[in-house]
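Human: Cast an eye over this sequence-structure pair and say how the chain folds.
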Amino acid sequence: MKRKEKETFLESRPQHDNFEYLLANQFLTEASDEGKIKKLKKVFGLAVEYRNDEAALKLLTLIDKAIYEKERRIAEGPGGDGHLGRAYGRAKRQLYDYLMEMYWQLPDMKPDRHDCRDIMCPTMLQTKFWILEEVILNWQPEEQGAVRTFQFLIAAYEPLSKDWQTPVENAEFKIKSKGRWVSQEERGEILKLIRRQNTRFKSGEIEKWIKQPWIPHEFEKILAIARTRNGGPKLWQDDIRNAELLKLFSPDERTEAAINLFQRECKIIAEIDQKVQKLINQMTSEDYSGREEIGGSEYVLGKRGIIYNTIFEIIIHIKLRPDCPEALVRDNFGRAKRHIKKWLKENHFRKVTLNMRIEGTDFKLNGEFYGDHHHLAKKG
């Protein structure tokens, strides 16, 4: 009868593996979760010191596994929530933090002999590429720490010069990158990963990343292309419309104070227009029945138009069809008046002017309503 083998950390095969592998497997299997992680990180540091790229890469995958096993056991143990998905998420966040710290400990280059002269060449590329690929998975809209991840990628792609003297604020990784040499292979890998990952972003989510400090020009180009691609025709139509709206203001020629004032006023106008739209929606609610019955509905008939005299003074025009009876026009005017008066009590507007007329005729009704009192004049 074949003996059932006990599950081990390295999943060894005693009948085939050499004694070093068996020894390492036994040692790691019997170690505590924390002890296992600590030892693996220590050996990883040794592999980095001696630039053993293959060993360092393998050790990182084992560190990844050990962190997950620790979180899995916590989830499945007493007091745990039993949710393996959350355990996986916690493990990955721990791994990302570790990788973003250790990346700066990796040697950036090594001397190499070429044509009887010494030149500097990139080193430990497999390990660096694995770290970059793992870390960039944390760069997505819904992930906590996504901004920090993006700042890491910026620093990895374009480190600070070793001669940089100006103090750097809120740039954790830029400071750690100071004086680091980056090979073309590393830069190419980072750009490839960003191109692959940004397909997860909607066009409205990409602007945030383009505005990040220290962003390299190459990142801007990739993100700008992704924004256009992901946004489709509606995005460029909106961009053209927005550019036309801003044309008179000429933002590039304005002071920061003027731009701040413009933004505040735009916000106020948007909030006011939203309230006015609410009034119109209340006038035309689908809940109202008996729309053409005199005295039987609160639905306001007709085509509606809005004009802003000032921010807090509006004119509402309502056109009714030519065959609309005069009695229904007057009833319709009363409906609109009641909506406006109720709305004025809830909102801080100075004045609402209501103009109602039958299309193609001279018959019309006008009313002016104020926030704290109203004056109503009718003409027939």
